[in-house]
# Entry
Amino acid sequence: MHSRQPLITRARVEAYTASALRLLMWLLGIVLRLPVSGRSARLKAELAYAERATEHLLFLHAVARFGPPPQRKIHPRFAARGFRRVRAKRLRLFYRGAGVRARKAAPLTRVLALLHALANPERAIAYFSARLRAGLRAARVLPTAPPAHTFVSAGPAHARTQPDTS
# Structure
C-alpha cells in the first residue's frame, strides 16, 4: 500500500511565491515610476492579474498545509428522479472572502495590499483552510417537479374506470 502524496509541495509554493513577488515588485516599479492616476486600461488589467495570482497563490499555501487529499466520496454523475444537479454559484465568490484585494483603491494602495497579503498570509490561509475542511463542491442537488409521464399515464387509467353514459 502506498502513502498518499500531497497535491502540491511546499518547495513549489515557495517558488511560486518568489515569482509572485517578482511580479509585484515590477508592478510597484511601474506604479512609482509613471505618474499614473489609475485610468490606464492596461495598468488595471495588470493589477487584476496580479490580484488573481496572489489569491491563487495563497490558496496553494493552504493546500500545501492541508496535506494529502482526503478519500473522495463518489458522487453520481446524474441526479435521481425528482432532482437536478446545479452548478454552485458561490465558487465565483470563493476568493473574495479572503480579503486580499483593496477594491476601488489607488494603484499604489492595491499593490501594497498585495505585498502585505504575501508578507502576512496567515489570515487568508486560515480562510482557505476552513473552506477546504468544509469540502469544495462544484455542484449541488435541487428538488424539481416529478416527471410528467407519471401524470400522463395516470390520466387515461382514471378515464377507463368511468362508465360510458352516452
